[in-house]
């Protein structure tokens, strides 16, 4: 069953009518309504193209959060072979919101790290909806250090509303863990690539996304705060999230224009959740291309290029 978003309701009605006609035809062999159902299919396909050709920033937020969108675990299972998960921060606990381990992308050994939201009620609770605690970021640091030691490229898949703001997380040093993880990204002497596959929220995303190459899926978002949080602060009304999304420039298209990200990875018509395999394949191709772009760069060059990338963002902001 397709999970339709609010703005897809007209599409849901048309696709529902087509399915009703086919259900009636299955019950009665005398009914021939395939031509009518096919016409509805054509109308639905045209409407889908039209809807996704002009998504507003708020609608892109809805697509980025779609529950059927491929998550980190889906990408790892489909794109990487010989994945060996590594757990724990060797300090406090294992955080299931962050998963990672050794793997191969094609013939290339890599370290892959990512936020995992879960796919049903049980797994979402276990994964804390992809919102990592300090131990999650300390695990990420441990894995990045391991990759650096053995000369393995680091690939991070970002999909989080933000770091978990709970009392226990704050007591265990959430902000310090995020800062240390961001610092570790900038210190790596190996290639690092980050892909925003859904939501990229606040420091919780940047902590594993301060990379040489940062890409976003076409309908993903990347921002310092959620539109609802921004609206609550600026307008004292979370219902102003549509206006906040417009002002925040959080879409892949805006961020590519501003130089915050390096590449936009196209999604199938209707979003990654409608053709999951195609979306995952596109991400795999982009990862291989970005790694190839950094072939031959030595440790010093990688660190310098990564640091300069982020320094240039600030310089452009001051100039503007």
UniProtKB/TrEMBL annotation:
Specify where it is mainly localized.
cytoplasm
Q: What is its EC number?
A: 2.1.3.15
In terms of superkingdom, the source organism counts as Bacteria
A single GO CC term, please? acetyl-CoA carboxylase complex
Any coiled-coil ranges, and where? none
Q: Which residues form the CoA carboxyltransferase C-terminal domain?
A: 39-293
Which Gene3D superfamilies does this one have?
2-enoyl-CoA Hydratase, Chain A, domain 1
Q: Which UniProt keywords apply?
A: ATP-binding, Cytoplasm, Fatty acid biosynthesis, Fatty acid metabolism, Lipid biosynthesis, Lipid metabolism, Nucleotide-binding, Transferase
Q: Where in the cell is it found?
A: Cytoplasm
Query: What is this enzyme's class at the first EC digit?
Result: transferase
Q: One biological-process term from Gene Ontology?
A: malonyl-CoA biosynthetic process
Q: Which GO terms describe its molecular function?
A: acetyl-CoA carboxylase activity; ATP binding; carboxyl- or carbamoyltransferase activity
The annotated subunit structure for this chain is:
Acetyl-CoA carboxylase is a heterohexamer composed of biotin carboxyl carrier protein (AccB), biotin carboxylase (AccC) and two subunits each of ACCase subunit alpha (AccA) and ACCase subunit beta (AccD).
The UniProt entry's sequence similarity note says: Belongs to the AccA family.
Q: What's its job? A: Component of the acetyl coenzyme A carboxylase (ACC) complex. First, biotin carboxylase catalyzes the carboxylation of biotin on its carrier protein (BCCP) and then the CO(2) group is transferred by the carboxyltransferase to acetyl-CoA to form malonyl-CoA.
Protein name according to UniProt: Acetyl-coenzyme A carboxylase carboxyl transferase subunit alpha
Q: What is the lineage of its organism?
A: Bacteria, Pseudomonadati, Pseudomonadota, Alphaproteobacteria, Rhodobacterales
The gene designation is: accA
């Amino acid at each position: 069953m397709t999970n339709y978003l609010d703005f897809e309701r007209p599409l849901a009605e048309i696709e529902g009518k087509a399915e009703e006609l086919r259900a009636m035809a299955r019950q009665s062999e005398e009914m021939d309504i395939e031509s009518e159902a096919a016409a509805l299919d054509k109308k639905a396909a045209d409407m889908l193209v039209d809807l996704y050709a002009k998504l507003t920033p708020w609608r892109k937020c809805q697509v980025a959060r779609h529950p059927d969108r491929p998550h980190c675990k889906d990408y790892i299972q489909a794109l990487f072979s010989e994945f060996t998960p590594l757990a724990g921060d060797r300090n406090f606990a294992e955080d299931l919101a962050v998963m990672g381990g050794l793997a191969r992308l094609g013939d290339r050994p890599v370290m892959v790290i990512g936020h995992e939201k879960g796919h049903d009620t049980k797994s979402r609770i276990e994964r804390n909806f992809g919102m990592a605690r300090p131990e999650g970021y300390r695990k990420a640091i441990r894995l990045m250090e391991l990759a650096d030691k053995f000369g393995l490229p680091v690939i991070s898949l970002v999909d989080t509303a933000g770091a978990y703001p709970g009392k226990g997380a704050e007591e265990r040093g959430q902000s310090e863990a995020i800062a240390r993880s961001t610092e570790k990204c900038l210190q790596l002497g190996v290639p690092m690539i980050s892909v925003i596959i859904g939501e990229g929220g606040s420091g919780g995303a940047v902590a594993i996304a301060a990379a040489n190459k940062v890409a976003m899926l076409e309908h993903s978002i990347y921002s310092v705060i959620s539109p609802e949080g921004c609206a609550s602060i600026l307008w004292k009304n979370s219902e102003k999230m549509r206006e906040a999304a417009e002002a925040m420039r959080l879409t892949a298209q805006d961020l590519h224009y501003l130089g915050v990200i390096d590449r936009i990875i196209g999604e199938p018509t209707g979003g990654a959740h409608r053709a999951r395999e195609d979306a995952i394949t596109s991400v795999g191709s982009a990862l291989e291309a970005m790694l190839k772009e950094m072939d031959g760069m030595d440790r010093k060059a990688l660190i310098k290029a990564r640091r300069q990338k982020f320094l240039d963002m600030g310089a452009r902001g001051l100039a503007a």
